[in-house]
Amino acid sequence: MLMTHRAAAVLLLAPLACAASPAAASPDLASPAAGAVLAAAAPAADGKPQERMIRVTGDGRVRVRPDVAIVHAGVEATGKVLAPTVADASAKMRRMLDALAKAGVAEKDVQTTRHDVQVERPWVDGKPRDITGYTVVDEVRVTVRDLGKLGAILERVIAAGSNSLRGLSFERDDPAPERQQALARAVAVARGKAEAMAKAAGVTLGEVVALEEGGAGPPIPLMKYRAEAMVAADGAPVTPGELEIAASVSVTYAIR
Q: In 110-142, which positions are buried (b, 16+ CB within 10 angstroms) versus exposed (e)?
């Protein structure tokens, strides 16, 4: 019986001891120890504190003058017999290619992009009738590297027999240097964001732990022009405008 009473006494003293401890009953949240616990990062699965981080994005843009023009020039021929129609289109294309060469356009800057033969055949009561004719379309993609000669080159192409001129655009032959500048600006913008956020949050910005480039599209023309405007009767100068080259990044910094 004495052993039984002693065991009961021990069991009763344990909760009394806990109640007698002020720190255990009502911890002081303003104490340094309690504050350190509250500010500590949540432990990871392995028991180590997780590194605190901040993630930001940045965009950078660079404006640049284009240095090449791209235009699609073509010829079209129609006829009732295929062979003469193909020959007619081929002759027109040869004259146009000769005009481009005489205007100073290099052979490597002219690329065939289309050769279509369209058959004209009427259908009656769901059945095809005899072929009534053919349409042959040939087209090339022309890169003009001297923009000062663009208007004159297009005039020569039309005079040589081109009856299709479309898709005029201005580009940068090698946009890599400007894209690198845009990337550098994007990283600087991201850094500025991170510094402002860290200062507002009362933390210290640490090293970069992750850096990723976002999707980069092609250079964007800030102004667009129709091909017809490039070929004025009085030889008006070409106005290529500017291109905008953009880049974006995502940066993750450690914070302390």
A: beeeeeeeeeeeeeeeeeeeeeeebebbbbbbb
Question: Does the predicted model carry a pTM greater than 0.70?
Answer: no
- Burial label for 162, CB within 10 Å (0-12, 13-18, 19+), is buried
Q: Give the CATH number of domain 68-171.
A: 3.30.70.2970
pLDDT digits (tens, 9 = 90+) for 88-103: 999 999 999 999 999 9
Write the pLDDT tens digit of every residue in 32-67: 333 222 233 455 556 666 789 999 999 999 999 999
**Dist. CA 36–CA 53, nearest whole Å:** 18
CATH class of 53-65+175-255: alpha beta
Intrachain domains 53-65+175-255 and 68-171 with the same fold: no
* Maximum alpha-carbon separation in the chain: 125
